[in-house]
Amino acid sequence: MKIIIQHNSMVPIYEQLVNQIKSLILEESLKENEPLPSVRVLAKEIKASALTVKKAYDLLEQEGFITTIHGKGSFVLAVNRHAKRENLLYSTQEELEQVIKKAQQAGISKAELAELVAMILEEEEA
């Protein structure tokens, strides 16, 4: 499991962990019933406290992404299709916001941008 933590980020470490593990599960890089690293092992790998990792795992469990079995560890649960769709919509929205910002910086009008998007969508349908 590849997790990259930005220690100088304004986003708390536990939140970075939650977001990255969720993405790995939704992209199915982490499969159902696959074990996650223990809290201590992951904490050592990302150079964070075990309490931080525990907080992330607790949130993931509350949201239904993982389950923890006392004495055995934490495991990935089956992917919820609704959650997967929501995650894809959210990431698409973030990407579109970046594209819109870039277009605005380039002086592209809303009408030009809308026309460009419509043209691309038409090409995809063909």
UniProtKB/TrEMBL annotation:
<dbReference type="InterPro" id="IPR036390">
    <property type="entry name" value="WH_DNA-bd_sf"/>
</dbReference>
<dbReference type="Pfam" id="PF00392">
    <property type="entry name" value="GntR"/>
</dbReference>
<protein>
    <submittedName>
        <fullName>GntR family transcriptional regulator</fullName>
    </submittedName>
</protein>
<dbReference type="InterPro" id="IPR036388">
    <property type="entry name" value="WH-like_DNA-bd_sf"/>
</dbReference>
<dbReference type="InterPro" id="IPR000524">
    <property type="entry name" value="Tscrpt_reg_HTH_GntR"/>
</dbReference>
<keyword id="KW-0238">DNA-binding</keyword>
<keyword id="KW-0804">Transcription</keyword>
<feature type="domain" description="HTH gntR-type">
    <location>
        <begin position="11"/>
        <end position="79"/>
    </location>
</feature>
<dbReference type="GO" id="GO:0003700">
    <property type="term" value="F:DNA-binding transcription factor activity"/>
</dbReference>
<dbReference type="GO" id="GO:0003677">
    <property type="term" value="F:DNA binding"/>
</dbReference>
<keyword id="KW-0805">Transcription regulation</keyword>
